[in-house]
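task queued by scheduler; priority normal; single chain, no ligands, no partner chains; default sampling; output format set to structure tokens
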Amino acid sequence: MNTSKVKHRYSSSPTKSQSGDKSSLLFWIMLCVTLIFLVWAPFQKALFNGNTSDFERPLYSFLLWGAILLFTVAIYGYYHWKFNNISGVVAICIWLIPLTYLISMFSAASHYFSFNMLLIQVTYTSFFLLGYFISKEKMGSRILINGIMIAGYIIVWFGLLNWFGNKEFAYGLVKWFAPGMASNVYQDAIMSDASGVRLTSVFQYANSYAALLIALLIGAIYLVSISKKWFDTLFHSFMIIPILISFLVTLSRGAYVILPLVLLAIFLILKPYRQLLMILYLIIGVIFTFIILGKVTDIGVQLSKEYNSSLSLQGWAALLIMSICLSTVFILVQRFLSSKFELKLSRISDVRFSNLFIPVGAIVIGALGLFLLLGNTGVLNLLPDNLKNRIETINFQQNSVIERGTFYIDAIKLFKDYPVTGAGGGAWAALYEKYQNNPYVSRQAHNFFLQYLVEVGSLGFLIFIIILGIVLYLFIRNHFKNNEDTPRFIFIIIAASLLIHSMIDFDLSFVYLGVLLFICLGAMISDLKVGLLNKQWTFTNNLKWIYPSILLIISLVTFFNAAQLLNANSNFRAAQAAVQSDKSTINDILTPVNNALKQHPNHPDYASFKADILLQAYDQSKDERFFNDAVTLIQQTREKEPHNRYLIDKEIYTLTVKNQFTKAYELINNEIGNFPWDITLYEKSINLAFSLGDQARTSKNTAQMNHYYDDAIATYSKILDKTKVLEALPKEQQQGRAFGLTKTMAFTLGQIKYIRGDYAAAENFLKFQINDQFDDQMNKQMVRWYLASLQKQNKNDQALYDKLIAKDAKERDEINKLVSATF
């Protein structure tokens, strides 16, 4: 017998072993890069998608690494992809989300915004698959959960370093990979506004930071409640007071309201004893926090004005000592009481719908808490002044609430014009001024779901909601089937926190938070014991290479696009740097910006920058080539970016430079429909109508003169009609940008009325905002016409007349010329 051919029954073939080694290496690459991203991304201003070139570089870097990760996922999929569970169906259907963004590009309001959003959605989907594959392994899931929580804790400590005045030290820790700041601190980690001093940490926006803190707070309390080892209890419980302090000093009223709602949603899925234990930990944490809240808050407010090392040390001492005390209490409770909680409530847990008992009771307790805080009970007086003032203003009759309601109504108006496939990524930023009820400034709709709806229409929105619903359903069903609380529950805590808070703010415009959401959604379906497919689907095992191959192609396409966009941004930055140099020639500037536009055609910021350079060169040299190149560039870019306000102004300028006033006038009047609350367009329309009317007057074309003059008066009438809309706004709501009669407009309309012989009306316009500052030439001319209109009515303003003549004696003749002029 040849024993050399007999293999041990537990041995594996060399091929399988090598495959296992390769896939294991890929697994660790995916996991390590994901963890690095979770630490890197927050310090890139949380990858805020601001739809301008200022925010591009970290975003394009993120897209590049996302493509590399997707490539790794594709290779890993060749070894591990199986289509034997409903989760596999979801992992395929998730690509319908970026597909809807691709479809929406055909009706996009902005090609630049929509293409960026398409690539972002592709990368979100990549992270969904990362969460899916990594969390299939129990160890991978555990490391990913800890990575998410630790990255969040780092953000919290970074914020507190800034709160306690250690701004330079905090920035010194991260500046080697964070974007450059104007000074040696992380810009706006602490912000002061009408509400007071607010902690924003890496987000530079307190409300979205508060959304993350909700997720971290509930997540930390949950992990403490299920911890079996004292070290785990210590690690997560030590963070509860820092998180609560940070949460409270964000002064985010919306987050204060949303926190109990998220807790209620989470509690509906947990067993009664887990709910009670978490409530107990939260109450203890709040009590310990309130002991030092006033002191820590006051210290932070003072340090925001002037650094004091003694105050800073006092703040740190109070925080750390109280956190140690809280951790000790939690370790004791978890060691001696948590098991008793579980035993005593085990019978209740078996009762149907028992998980609803405590949430219903919590609603009653919550209502009582609201009464204590908002009623005249004196409880508010226990809080620091800035927090007290913030909570006192929580009501539905305040500007932030009413204004959000306006955003939502305007978003529905936008959606009605693009109901099926939407207006593309960034639709709200591109189009909101066309649909707005009043002249507010907000490039974010402050509601993720409505912003999503206007971007991809009912088709894309329905697909997203169905996928989201399936993921939540499968996770919850699987959770109840397993009948135990595991660390994986963190994934739904984070997802629910972000989704619920994003109903009232633009949290998911921070790509970092979007990535967190999609990682968690992918992880939620990674370890399902439900939803197994029938055996009739086994034939797909022979075709399992198809899906990884498609992922491979998508990763390569995304990589090359992201690399090209990143190179374009580098060239644009080089052009900007050349402008700042005194030694640069025009070619030194145009060469890199031309390269940028080749790599990223029709980029509105790049095109606007180049057009400015060309027009400046034309002004200096009068070389028509510069002017013609600028006109061609503006027109080509506007075909893809028809709603870009800066390009519209540049096209108007090029028309007026060449005295094409009629075309400029038509363009302005057309754009008033797209920007109905932009008073500068009305002002330009009235001025051009007067210029065209004046040309007709000098040409003795009375009919055309009256046509243009009547247009100017009609435009002013539109302004008056729209100001009535502003007068009807609730008194608590701010109108936004100024809208109404401007001095330039008043001068033009006054001249029209004077020429037509309506001197009383002319007087009313011409006296608008005039003063005795005659070095201002427009003011000087306006006073001249005003005094002439008075003389035409046998009236005078002797004091103003004397001041004007004292400044310039020639004005006496100028006024007399006007008085005696015939038009």
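post-processing summary
- Residues 448-482 form the longest helix (35 residues).
- The CA atoms of residues 549 and 649 lie 47 Å apart.
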